[in-house]
Amino acid sequence: MERLLFCFLLRFLLRNGSVFGLGSESKGLAGTHDSWGPQIKGLTGSLEPADDEPPRPDEEAGAGAAGAAEAAPAEGDDAGGDGIEVCCFDNRGVGRSSVPPNKSYYSTGIMAKDALALMDHLGWKKAHVFGHSMGAMISCKLAAIAPHRLCSLALLNVTGGGFQCFPKVDGQMLSLAFRFLRAKTPEERALVDLETHYTKEYLDETVGSCTRRMILYQEYVKGISSTGMQSNCGFEGQVNACWTHNMTTKELDAIRSAGFLISVIHGRDDIIAQLCHAKRLAERLVPAARMVELHGAHLVSHERPDEVNNALMDLIKATKSAVKPEEWSAQPENVSETGALISGRPITVTMRTDEGVIVMGFEHMRNIVKVMKPVRVAAIES
């Protein structure tokens, strides 16, 4: 049985963002495991947990980062007994997990060790590790700390942390930041959230007698109104983890030479985690990494669930078939009918920035985020 470990995501804006993750439903800076719903259902065929099934230490595992365990059909339930078991859990500071009081207890390295301890508890020797946004940063650290525990690695909407958490600065982002700071009601907050999570094209699609924007808007308002506040300790701690995240050359070398396959999956319209940073990371992980660009924004896993799930299954199948890293990344560039761009050799991305502007902007954003009061909101099923 294949086992998948999903790392929760963190969304970064001039506010508490939205996260794919673990624990109770939330749409705050750190989200919960429920947000992985489209991937759990797509990969296993069900959202029903199977927590009463004992772990099998002798089998390879796959994982995602979040709190409660959810499993696919057990061995023997499908042809050849080759099912998929999934574990999603809440990172520290959110959902059902503990909330350490000091931000020094939060880093991507510490949270990677949390995930590793959970794998040990489950008796999972190895896993396919998937992470989104901050969860992808955590997944990178996990891969560097214990590369022998990974079957494969999928990084969704990832950045390198630090100043790379700074969102794209343009008229749209400045408008969203201004509206967010002025938002006093769940209705005003929901409008801003939708525009940062999804593309306009997706929101304007007709679903039945109304648009997807109207449906999601109602769900967002309900979630923001009902789920209460995320603790300041958890919020500030996870922000600290993002600002201090950094992958050294030695760590990237360890991941690249470990032998497992890597997919870097990203929405090309993401205004929070910019595509250029994901491409740069993928380039540094060649020949093990394949870059997959999708038409979508930060929540591309909700906006394009089928394409994301197909990319994850391709990774799992290639791993089972013992495809070599050089073969995985050497496949020719391909554009699918749905607009997915799959490139084995990531394009070199050169960024020219004014160092003084970056430093000033970075410090300014830190000050803004520091005084924000995070709000937990419900995970949204698209």
UniProtKB/TrEMBL annotation:
Q: Where is this region: Disordered?
A: 31-78
What keywords appear on the UniProt entry?
A: Signal
InterPro entries listed in its UniProt record: AB_hydrolase, AB_hydrolase_1, AB_hydrolase_fold
* AB hydrolase-1 domain sequence ranges: 82-305
Ranges of Low complexity composition bias in the record? 62-74
Ribosomal protein: present as a keyword of the record? no
- N-terminal signal peptide: 1-21
Q: Which PANTHER family does the record match to this protein?
A: AB HYDROLASE-1 DOMAIN-CONTAINING PROTEIN, HYDROLASE, ALPHA/BETA FOLD FAMILY PROTEIN
By what name is this protein known?
A: AB hydrolase-1 domain-containing protein
> Native species of this protein?
Panicum virgatum
